[in-house]
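Translate sequence into structure tokens.
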Amino acid sequence: MALFYKSTRDPKNVVSASQAILQGLAVDGGLYVPTEIPKPVLDFAELAEQSYQEIAAQIMQLFLPDFTQDELRDCINQAYDQKFDDPKITPLVKADGQYYLELFHGPTLAFKDLALSILPHLMKKAAQKNNLDKEIVILTATSGDTGKSAMAGFADVENTKIVVFYPENGVSPIQERQMVTQKGANTFVAAIEGNFDDAQTKVKQLFNDENLRSKMAQNNKAFSSANSINIGRLVPQIVYYVYAYTRLIKTGRIKSGEEINVSVPTGNFGDILAGFYAKKMGLPIRRLVCASNQNNVLTDFFQTGNYDRNRPFYITSSPSMDILVSSNLERLLFYLAKEDTAQTKQLMDDLNEKGTYTITPEMKEGLSDFFADFASEEETAETIRKMYEDGAYVIDPHTAVASCVAEKYPNDEKIPTVVLSTASPYKFPQAVLQAINKENIAAEGFAAIDKLHQIAKVSIPASIQELEKAKIRHHDRISADQMTDFVEKALDLK
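Result follows.
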């Protein structure tokens, strides 16, 4: 059976992989999922001898069958090259009894680089395959990392524009600086009043705004997304789960076929969903540990079956996880509902109208692949301090959340745990310094980076050093109600 992609809300909406990548969000408001999850016979011992790029080619071919092997290899080779400061791309490091998969060696120092370095190349190939002669407009809301990674990937890419919205005062100073200094005549970014959920909700509305869509068509433009709602984002993220497992085999820490646990700092549910796909295609993962910060809506969902966004919103030291509406959870709900599109749509409608929904007991039984808990701000800081003092290893707050929650999982069989380290500590220097020193650090931004370097003795990445002298190019701060006008002006819609 050939693999296609279908909407979580309409069983008749079926497209090819390349079409799903181009559309991003389905026209019915749903998310695209594969018509079947590949179940290959993977020789992990053989994969253990292969490079990241070679593993990526095998895994991505399974999920993107309308791309030829040569097309995928070309995309992979352009994506995973010298822009990553480690030839392993995602090195696996052991520290204080756990394994940390470092996903921050790309140009923007965050895990989003693994997907957003390749997405522009996939999208360009997809446009050629589908004879799309329209300008592709990437429209994205970001909680901190997606925005910069997407702009870096799409900057000055022919026949594209990218528009990014981020929450004012809802990202770290370094994250904001990365975005507002982004070069590229086709890049547009604005801070909005409110939080990430406000930005994300409005972006979804813009995708489905018939008036705006008509104006786009008249101007020969088409929307797509760089958020993890786009399967072109999710598929590349499956790769590093497989890669991490094979590195444990290569170093003799496990034997092929033995199980591992994976702990993932989780906000929009995209990264851990990629792990879910890896598990369902045959990777021996015992539990996917869903780690939340104080915005613990996902913890409550997995523990009770009730999703309720009607709660206080906290600004934390791990801002990329400050989310109360986890968009990618819709894909998991689709599987829990045994692919019932009507039931999935009803749950999403309930969330939109009431801010809450409750899954059935039968659906809740399907959550056994996951363990969920959260880390308070105090626990997050304590984890950073402990890792520094006991393990001589410096981690950022998001990684600390995942490390802390991994320790809460009752791992009685002592199964090896891989913690996804999703960002460099230099993206959140003040929070890391405060955790290590247990005192208020007055230094912010680049002063904090210098202090962290002095204390932790960790090399400052070149991209951070360059950032200090970079020119600020984007100055817009708007309300959510002004986002439509901002898009129309940026795209010069007539």
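Note: The chain has a mean pLDDT of 94.
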